[in-house]
Amino acid sequence: MPALHKELPSVTVAGDLSTVTYTGPVNAAGDADGPYGILVYGSEASGPVTYAGPIKNNRPDGEGTLTRVVSSCTGRFEGFEEVIAECRLALEPVVVTAQIAPDQYTENVEYKGGVVAKTSDPNVRLGPFQLAFEGKGLLTAAADGSAHRYEGAWDDGVLREGQIDVDPDKKTARRYVGTFDKSGAILTGRNMFAVDEGNIQVVPYTNGTAFIGIGGHAFAYEIEAGKLDDGGDPVRGLSVWSHPDPRLRVFNGGQTTIEVNHNETDDAPRFCKPTSGATVDISPWELRCAAGPQGYCIVEDRTVGIRLNVAWPPRPQAGPITQTPIIRLDVHGNKVNPSAILIDGRETAIPAADRMTQPQAYALVADLCAGNKVESGGNVSGLDNFCVASAYAFAKAINCPDITFFVP
User: Fold this and answer.
1) E strands along 180-291, which residues?
2) CA separation for the pair 29, 298 (Å, rounded)
3) 242/257 Cα distance (integer angstroms)
4) Per-residue model confidence as pLDDT tens digits over 86-124
5) Any idea what DSSP says for residue 180?
6) Whole-number Cα distances in Å, 139 to 97, 121, 125, 157, 353
7) pLDDT tens digits, 60-92
8) How does DSSP assign 90-132, residue by residue?
9) What is the DSSP-derived secondary structure letter of residue 305?
């Protein structure tokens, strides 16, 4: 088959006309056909796009490479309709369906990860190639002065499991970690976390009832966790604030059942007293705390062997604590040390005890607050008072760093 350089018939995909220039072998009919050739698509929308690799009947047909300026994809191309490739894309218009982001990014767009062909609603168009993110991938982009970062497992162009960071280098950074629904419009997984310095973020879970929100800013720290009703209103859970208005609130059935929201002195909230909470019913859960540089509070039910450890966050040189307490959940019931527990019959994973799994740990606190019963090692315990004990643990951890020792 002789090698030629020739113009091929133009192609139009999704309204985008591309001229086609070919260099490589041709068959007896004069069509591009061979084990290696180069097709250059002069796209009106995206500019020149080059495919290099096997070609059959004027179309890509095998393991090849797609390039545009500094963008490239390597993988299998069968025409424009069947593509499985790994890409490094830069400076391309990208469409992403997500609750917290605009539909289209045009600034500082970079993507590294898998792609497949998608004929409707693609993330990226490279000439006649319409591509959707698929498999493991990382997308960074900007819009209207806001930086966004998506990382995790993609499915049909939607981030289905992983994390989304908004303005990660700013004090107003927000992070969402978990699983996302098909449209990307609603966060539906269990392991969700949202950080917004200054504003609590309420995030629904798989069952549509549990939420977790946590944040800190220059003047205060706050956490909310618990259960929502069908209308999205909190019906059971906890709410804890630090300076300048330290307070603790527990609600059940849509009503506030415990509220401690004033100081006895300017710098000693009432729940910092050694006996604070001693008369509150938290059975079958226990609460014990030890303060100091390595202070902590522990919420524990020995029947099921579940323990929540809330560590003292670092205390600044001056002013209130504004950082998130490091928490850990341990399960040691019946000497089994399982990797999961059952909350209302639903299996829930126990995250590893390290800083990287803090989102999952906080999410599990929300699941426990929202639940009715928990089971581990064949033992069952009620969860009605878990939020009560946890609220005191968080309130003491962020507001009472100077107490030497107390057992409420």
Assistant:
1) 210-216, 221-228, 234-241, 247-252, 255-260, 263-265, 268-269, 286-290
2) 79
3) 20
4) 999 987 788 887 656 667 888 888 999 999 999 888 989
5) B
6) 13, 17, 15, 11, 28
7) 999 999 999 889 999 999 999 999 999 999 877
8) ES--EE---TTS-SEE-EEEEEEEEEEE-SSS-SEEETTEEEE
9) T
